Amino acid sequence: MDIRKFVEQSIGCWRSQRSAHHLIFSHFEAVQSSIEIVALSPEDPSVLELCRSYDIDPTAAVSPFYMSWEGLSDWDEKEELKGSCILAPVPDPDHPNRGKLLRSQGYAETIPAVGDYHLTDDGSFVLHTPYDRAMAEERIWFVTPNLRCRVSFIKTSAGSGVVTASFSTEIRSLVSGSD
Known about the structure:
Elements: H1 3-10, E1 12-22, E2 27-39, H2 45-53, E3 65-73, E4 81-92, E5 95-103, E6 113-119, E7 125-130, E8 134-144, E9 147-156, E10 162-172
Antiparallel strand pairs: 1-2, 1-10, 2-3, 3-4, 4-5, 5-6, 6-7, 7-8, 8-9, 9-10
């Protein structure tokens, strides 16, 4: 699997059930959310702007996409869990299953971020993203074309201690044409 195929498989609307363990607070959280992933043209102005903001040649980016999410948590029902970002994978020309992932907004901190990704032999997408105050590690894999799993760790900025660990199952929403 390469990054193009991984992104292509990810396009769509997903319903997610996430279980998170916030180790620092000794708290367990359940989050239900919807995630929408939409392919973008490499010439989309938001993709060009994202690449330029990191001094990356926009022609190096492949399969850019827009992701939005909205969810509900059982921890703080008043907290608004929603957001969106533009993402642009930039494969390493010498190692096609490795590269950078440019994000207009990060996962662990809501700031722009660049992570290092690689795809494993079994097709799992693994992402390591350093932030100002944390380090995020994510692994996403497909169980079937319409079911994927995601494991995420938020670590200390040095990467030595785990602050949050979560597991998500994500099911693609399928629209039936027989309605």
